[in-house]
Amino acid sequence: MHSVLVNITTLLFLSIGIKNDLLSVKVNKLSSTKTQLPYHYYFLQYCKPKKILNSAENLGEVLRGDWIENSVYEFHMRQETPCKVACKVKLNAEAAKNFKEKIGDEYRVNMILDNLSVAVIRQRRDGSQSTAYEYGFRVGFKGNYAGLSCILQKAPLRYLLLIYVTFVTLLYFVRAKRRSILSITT
């Protein structure tokens, strides 16, 4: 099992951005369009908070099958946060097998920040330059990372696990009939 970097981006449209307010990222289910069988986020061996709390806020979330829970990801409004390690995990054989199965079935991790789904910016398939977003991010993918020599030697595909998370939030301020967008990386 190998790891690669993923960049997770969420857009926040807020009229008031009070500096230092706590922003807690919540986790939702793992979902796949290939199998349509959802799993709890913590079914996979992701970093866990000391106590996992259910955060379902309404009947619709329960009926939809959402499993909204707290996570280890927290930061503060309008305050850059340097890279920090959420936890260190050594995968045992069963945990690695679970990750491989979810990568093979194209599962996505769904997170929520300030009641908005976390999304990943992606390149459009039609080649246009307009921005496109995908809800959640992939657990990982199958591929090679060793360059052309692997392709020429027909090396087997490897399972690559996405383990680095970067949150980029965009704040929307309204000031006396004038709009401006401020981008803050956390």
Chain-wise SSE layout:
Layout (H helix, E strand, L loop, with lengths): L1 E4 L2 E2 L12 E10 L27 H5 L5 E8 L16 H12 L3 E6 L2 E2 L1 E4 L9 E4 L1 E2 L1 E4 L4 H5 L5 E7 L2 E9 L2 E8 L1
Parallel strand pairs: 1-11, 2-12
Antiparallel strand pairs: 3-4, 3-5, 5-6, 5-9, 7-8, 10-11, 12-13
In the predicted model, the low-confidence regions spanning at least 5 consecutive residues are 1-16, 176-186
How many H/I helices? 3
Instruction: Return Rg in Å.
Output: 18 Å
Please identify the structural class as seen in this structure.
Answer: mainly beta
Summarize the biggest pleated sheet: 5 strands, antiparallel
Shape: globular
Q: Regarding quaternary structure, how should these chains be classified?
A: single chain
